[in-house]
Amino acid sequence: MRNFREDKDYSVINGPFKIKASSRNGHTATIDLKVNGNLIRTVLPGHDLEEELGTIAELFEGQEEVIVYVRSLVNNVAAHPKSLITITIENNGDTQEFILDKPFQDEDGEVHDLIRYKNYFNLVRS
Amino acid sequence: MKKLYLCLALGLFLISNATAQSTDSLKFDDLVAPQSPGFQILGISPQSIYRPTSTKALGTYFLNNIDESAGLVKDVAIEFTPYWLKARPNLTFQEYFEIDNNKGESPFWDTIKKTFVISMATTDYEFEGDSLSYRAWGFGFRTMLVRGTPHVAKRIEMLARLRQSNFVSNIYTNVEELLDENEMTREELLIAVEAQFDQYINDPDLVVGINVEEITYTKKATLEYLKEALPSKQADFQEFILGMISKSVSPVIREIRDEDLNRTGLQVQLSGATSLLIPNNNVEGTEGGNYGVWITASHSVSKEGDLQILLLARYQGSFQNIGATNKDIGISLAQSSGNYDISVELIHRSTKEEYETRDFSGNPITAFNKDNALRFTANAQFKISDVANLSFNAGKDFESKITTKSNLIALIGVNFDLFRNSVLKF
């Protein structure tokens, strides 16, 4: 098991806020979505995460800061030696895509069955 | 001219590795296509094989292994699948695992694209009394033409198990993150695990891919396991939980990888290889070496008692001696059930050798030596009772103009296994 932490700042305007996450390269993953520490959805292998979290006004209601947390556990099932997670954020017509890939084999030559990604998106009002 | 003769000698030496297997010693398994044809054509088994996973790594490898004469250095051994040299951001697990193919691609080209493997190697040859050294480069490929039929229902069942095991692994991941922030006693940890399951039981919409019954079952099994297996020392909790994240899913992941190879129906593999001979590793003097083509076709079904058919074909020759070729075909049929086993194996070899000689008038001529040989074995075993089997074995050795053996042997016997179910009483 390896952990990878990717912190991203994401500037939002308003309107519906959508988040999608999927594993590819023939692999599959469990994907967890939390907003401000609250679990929104756990998606098990064979499915992609696709959530509409509401508008930014709703997201920020009573909150100073909104942290969207996407955690992925990618299963090493396909022949491709790299895990791959794509996270897409759509807000008010603007789409940003984050593509993350890491090899299943580490520097010591050990091949891992699972790779864990932790991605935080700190939402800020524009 | 000396160079030409030396090249010819080297070519004949190399072909002896690959093609000059005597008919007597030829076995059915010898016809099986090599795993890495690029290595086999040179007659080598490299200890260390480089398997690049990106085009950049592939390019870097070749740049690092070119010497001053623009040739490849000695002991290159590389194997790669072009399809997997780049990321496949559109390839879903369901498509990969052939549960669902939404793209509607031709199965034939899709199979070739995903299974085409290239192997390449170099090695050196030196001959006594020869000042030149020779580097041979071997290039080979193998690909499936027909991959067989996957057991889709079994694969769907495995995906369901993968979901269950991932669900447990995800619970452990949550607990590991909690342990990262708080110290917990054994009881607190067990309560935290239970709470993790309960949040999904109380609100099943929180999770996609598992139902409440499955969650309840996995909760019970996980808590029972943890009560037994959780270390006594609090300091060991985190390491234990971290280990469980992988441990929960690893067996299913390995089963899925194995299942990808498990297919029934017709499977056809094509392999080919050739070698180049390079005197003093100077590419300007390059000549062709050996070549070979292998076809393996098999048909099997999962149900016990069904016929298993295997066809192996091999064609080998050398650019150094164009007239010398070997064509081998092997067929194996096997059928088994609880009461009987029957197998038949047949090998046919056709060889052709071209050589310079003189006719009766002393004029130089090119002569051919062609030979065809056939060998078969048949074995059958029938269960007569719990302790006795009737066996029949027959075989015919190669018969050809070169090998004179032509003996048909048949044996019939009854085997008793008197002590198999015996219980000694005093």
Report mean pLDDT of chain B, rounded to a whole number. Answer: 84
N- to C-terminal distance of chain A: 37 Å
* Strand residue content of chain A: over 45%
Low-pLDDT stretches of chain A: 1-6
* Overall outline of chain B: extended
Low-pLDDT stretches of chain B are 1-20, 421-426
Q: Kindly report the greatest chain-chain contact and the residue count on each side.
A: A-B, 37 and 39 residues
Secondary-structure-based class of chain B equals alpha+beta
Counting DSSP H or I runs of 4 or more residues, the number of helices of chain A is: 1
Q: Major beta sheet of chain B, specifics?
A: 12 strands, antiparallel
Discrete helix count of chain B:
10
> What's the total number of strands of chain B?
13
- Cα gyration radius of chain A (Å): 15 Å
Please specify the SSE layout and strand pairing.
The complex is a heterodimer of chains A (126) and B (426).
Chain A: E1 3-12, E2 16-23, E3 28-35, E4 38-43, E5 49-55, H1 56-60, E6 66-75, E7 82-91, E8 94-103, E9 114-125
Parallel strand pairs in A: 1-9
Antiparallel strand pairs in A: 2-5, 2-7, 3-4, 3-6, 6-9, 7-8
Chain B: H1 2-18, H2 37-40, H3 55-64, E1 77-80, H4 93-96, H5 107-115, E2 117-126, E3 133-146, E4 149-150, H6 152-181, H7 186-202, E5 207-208, H8 212-229, H9 237-247, H10 250-259, E6 263-279, E7 287-300, E8 307-318, E9 321-336, E10 340-358, E11 364-383, E12 388-396, E13 408-416
Antiparallel strand pairs in B: 1-2, 2-3, 3-6, 4-6, 6-7, 7-8, 8-9, 9-10, 10-11, 11-12, 12-13
Helix pairs in contact in B: 6-7, 6-9, 6-10, 7-8
